[in-house]
Amino acid sequence: MKSVDPLHGVAAFLAVADHHGFSAAAEALGLTRATVSAQVSDLECRLGVRLFHRTTRLVRLTPAGQAYREGLGDLPGRIDAAARAAQAEHAAPEGRLRLSAPGDFGQHFLVPWVAEFLSLHPGMSIDLDLSNTAHNLIDRRLDLAIRGTLAVEPNLITRRLGTAPLYLCAQARYLARRGIPRDPEDLVAHDLIHFSALRRGRVWIFERGEVRREMQIEPRLELSEGWAMRDAALRGAGICQLPNFLVTHALRSGELVRILPDWSIGSIPLHAVYPDNRLIAERVKTFVGFLARKTKAEPDLSSG
Asked: Is a pLDDT exceeding 80 seen at residue 88?
């Protein structure tokens, strides 16, 4: 028994459905109208259903044709993506990579890393958006995002890169003037600098062993960027919570002092997220692998 190619006629069907006619489909495929019509007829015969209503003026999908078209989805796009992936398998990554990352992480780590990456891959270019907004990757046509939380839309792959612990700190002169808090409740008597984009709102959480305290705070100053919070703290504006990598140097120099070090106030998990389109572009895979190596080697980012 002669086997039948299950894809025979599918390209012709898709072209007619998407171009709304046999002549336009034939032109798009580089075939004759008669060939396209014959292939669609063969497909209908094999499926045992009529896929199109045909008149002298109009070609439209039947209900069965509509269901078949929806079932095929973005088959042409996936075929093209598969071809590109196969061709790029042994090629050096190239093209433009569009990504977003939180501003503080980007300024402190990502910009230097991007410069190094570009020197290693001359065929690559990068469009980097530094923002605390968790953009929808599909809507913004982003290849990749670095996120500090897992507010991730469906159909994204998530890869953990590392964790940045949070420190509570303030300027040494501020503490000399206002006193050093010995317990989380002591913070109510202080000026507090708060990260305005915190998803849980004006709540600071403290943990020590089995003890957990959640404090509703009234900040004296709210800012949307960590570097701005650090600069405000360095100028004596109050007490702030910041990732360790933003304050390590100031803590070592004594400009800032860590407060309540025996209490944990949480950490920022860092993830790379990118669309799950089955065939990940070589430039995305290469850059994510590079990021994983850089974060693993960074002492201010734990791998946990």
From this structure: no
- Residue owning tokens 């989380």: 184
Rounded Cα distance, 82 and 80, in Å: 5
pLDDT in tens, 264-293: 998 888 889 888 765 567 888 899 999 999
**Helices first, then strands: H and E counts in the chain:** 12, 13
8 A C-beta contact, residue 137 and residue 274? yes
Token pair, residue 91, equals: 């090629």
Q: Which residue has the higher pLDDT, 199 or 89?
A: 199
Length of the chain: 304
Strand, coil or helix: 273: strand
Using CA atoms, how far apart are residues 132 and 110, in angstroms rounded to an integer? Answer: 14
Task: Describe the chain by its helix, strand, coil percentages, rounded to 5.
Answer: 40, 25, 35
Contacts of 82 (CB under 8 A, 6+ apart): 279
- With tokens 């100053």, the residue in question is 221
Look at the alpha carbons of 168, 172, 178, 182 in this order and tell me if their dihedral is positive or negative. positive
- H-run or E-run covering 241: strand 239-243
DSSP one-letter code for 302: B
Helix axes 22-29, 10-19, angle to 10 degrees: 120
C-beta separation of 164 from 267 below 8 A = yes
- Report yes or no: 43 and 10 within 8 Å, Cβ to Cβ: yes
DSSP H helical ranges for 121-217: 137-140, 172-178
Sign of CA dihedral 138, 139, 142, 144: negative
For the chain, the average pLDDT equals 86
Residue 120: which residues within 8 A CB-CB, separation 6 or more? 290
**Could you tell me which residues come within 8 angstroms of residue 157 by beta carbon, excluding any fewer than 6 positions away?**
273, 274, 275, 276, 280
Classify 46 as helix, strand or coil.
helix
Closest CA to 38 of 59, 64, 8: 8
Question: Bridge-partner residues for 171, per DSSP?
Answer: 256
